[in-house]
Amino acid sequence: MLTVKRAKQLLAAFTDLRLLVVGDLMLDRYLYGVADRISPEAPVPVVRVLRETSVPGGAANVAANVAALGARVDVVGIRGEDADGAGLTELLGNLNIDDGGALRVKRLTTIVKTRIMADRQQVVRVDRDQSLKLDQAETRELLARIRARVRCADGVILEDYGKGTLSQDVVDTVLSETRANSTPVGFDPRDNHELCLNGITLATPNWREALNAVGWNDSARLSGEPTAECLDRVADGLMAKWATRLLIITLGPQGIYLAPRQGPRQLIPTRAREVFDVSGAGDTVVGACLLALAAGATDVEAAEIGNHAAGIVVGKLGTAVCSPTELVASIAGRETNLE
Question: Alpha-carbon distance 103 to 294, whole Å?
Answer without folding.
Answer: 26
